[in-house]
Amino acid sequence: KPSLLRKTGVYTLQAALAATFIGTGYVSYKLYRESNPAPQKPQAETFSNGSPRKTLVILGSGWGSISLLKNLDTTLYNVVIVSPRNYFLFTPLLPSTPVGTIELKSIVEPVRSIARRAPGEVTYYEAEAQDIDPVKKIVQIKSVSKDEGGLTKELKYDYLVVGVGAQPTTFGIPGVYENASFLKEIPDAQEIRVKVMNNIEKATTLSPEDPERMRLLNFVVVGGGPTGVEFAAELQDYIDQDLAKWMPEISKELKVTLVEALPNILNMFDKSLIEYAQDLFKKEKIDLKLNTMVKNVTGTTITAKTGDATEDIPYGVLVWATGNAPRDVTKGLMGKMEQQNSRRGLLINDKLELLGAEDSVWAIGDCTFYPGLFPTAQVAHQEGEYLARVLKKQYKIDQHNWTLVQNSNAAETAKVQSRIEKLNDQIQPFKYNHQGALAYIGSEKAIADVAIGESKYRLKGSWTFLFWKSAYLSMCLSFRNRILVALDWWKVSFFGRDSSV
Ligand code: FAD
Ligand code: NAI
């Protein structure tokens, strides 16, 4: 008779085999579904009842617009997406890319694939919206083809969603645009990588006493918000975990400086987490310059003010991460409408409708300004989901309106009108559900302000880093992204980061 121990062993092995089998089956099925989309319903001018299919133009392919597209029933509208970026970018992992912790291709998903997986056909233009006319309901777009120069086109819309995001702000500080790198898009990450690697190699040709060598090896990050902090942390990890092995001498000379105008970094986090992060930065030897405001930038030096003292800090690579400013197309739209009198972004109401064009334009994400809604992926994502629900109701309202136009029977008209009223009542204001904030702070540690219902939890350290990793894995847009990101982490833990450009 087999012993209990042996029986347990056999059962465990069987359970493990079954789990592997089911897991592999699930992953294969998900990947198959993602790469083999079902047929799509074609776009058409009218529906089967003869009512016109309205045109919905969505500007942007970021967190807000793609969340809308993924949740929208695209058979209800002629959906047109316009974005100069033909992919969705998973920004939370962008700070990991310049040093090679994560490969850039692992965090992007082509707009074409996302659009092709929608139930109804979607038109995509790789173009930039240049001008929006909310009265004539026309968007002027220009293609971003690099070789022929852009082609322009006018798009007429019934409904428009503006989700064009924001651009980095410099607060008009001289020399920033000319000399600094930003960290907002893929080309920014590529530029930073080239600068970092080139500077390290260039410095090796100079003698250790040469002040130019010291300058080249000083990497300065301006802005102690989450972008600046996460990038500084990744840079220091690269120096400590990889360069220390392959170029031990240079790694000792490399210095990361983080400059922040306020008395502390990571303002949106709880005080205890801020202190933890700042202490860790000190231990990691990141030079934290608090209460220090950058006033001027040249090709080799930043001039910063701390109280009354002014200091020149030589730098080799400068990364600028001081927050957001509206894009030109957003400013153009704001300039046309007297209701749009904020310089911080498009003003919307609690249903995300653009003030001044409430019947036809919604605005979501970083291009908007609404008290209590911060420029985060979390907000933009939830706004996109909300808008998909609103547009479904709007379709029903439009269908009832069509019936009203066709119908002359008074009793039927009253019935339809009451249905329209009901549907309008069902469109409730957008309610943001804040789930917390996460940030990577280096040395495989993270901090998290987690909100579950009314309860708040403050987490920090190595376990929180694992939580950070699993949270971001689960948030990745596609299953393919999830696998690629997990493989990148696995690769780095075995082989380290790659130093080639
Ligand atoms: P975006 O995602 O920026 O998308 C804007 C889209 O509009 C882009 O596709 C762009 O190409 C397109 N576009 C631009 N101009 C035009 C035009 N003229 N016409 C048409 N389309 C146009 N938030 C979090 O909540 N958690 C995080 O961990 C986090 N990490 C971040 C890390 C970094 C490095 C950065 C930069 C941001 C991070 N954020 C994070 C913030 C988050 O990325 C933004 O809040 C979010 O991207 C906003 O979504 P959006 O759709 O408004 O804009
Ligand atoms: P931010 O606006 O959050 O922080 C910018 C920082 O730069 C501020 O602390 C500001 O005091 C400082 N600053 C401004 N001018 C300065 C100057 N001249 N000299 C020195 N310091 C100066 O900007 P960030 O980090 O780019 O983030 C933008 C948005 O994206 C935020 O809403 C943020 O919450 C979100 N985000 C969230 C992340 C996360 O949740 N992990 C990661 C990255 C961004």
The total of beta strands comes to 24
Number of helices: 14
Query: Measured on Cα atoms, how large is the radius of gyration?
Result: 26 Å
Helix content: 40-55%
State the secondary-structure class: alpha/beta
**Mean pLDDT, nearest integer?**
95
Strand order of the largest sheet: 5-2-1-9-20
**What's the N-to-C terminus distance?**
63 Å
Taken from the alpha-carbon principal axes, the silhouette is: globular
Largest sheet: 5 strands, parallel
Portion in beta strands? 15-25%
Low-confidence stretches: none
Bound molecules: flavin-adenine dinucleotide, 1,4-dihydronicotinamide adenine dinucleotide
Provide a descriptive summary of the structure in words.
This protein has 501 residues and is an alpha/beta fold. The chain has 14 helices and 24 strands. It has helices spanning 4-35, 63-71, 111-116, 176-179, 186-204, 211-216, 226-246, 248-253, 271-283, 328-336, 377-406, 410-426, 462-475, 479-495, and strands at 55-59, 78-82, 87-89, 108-110, 122-125, 127-133, 138-143, 152-156, 159-162, 167-168, 218-222, 255-259, 287-289, 292-297, 301-306, 309-314, 317-320, 324-325, 346-347, 361-363, 368-369, 436-442, 445-452, 455-461. A five-stranded parallel beta sheet has the order 5-2-1-9-20. β14 and β15 (301-306) form a beta hairpin. α2 (63-71) packs across α11 and α11 (377-406) packs antiparallel against α12. The chain is globular, with a radius of gyration of 26 Å. Bound molecules: flavin-adenine dinucleotide (FAD) and 1,4-dihydronicotinamide adenine dinucleotide. 1,4-dihydronicotinamide adenine dinucleotide is lined by residues 171, 173, 222-228, 230, 259-262, 267-268, 293-294, 321-324, 374-376, 437-439.
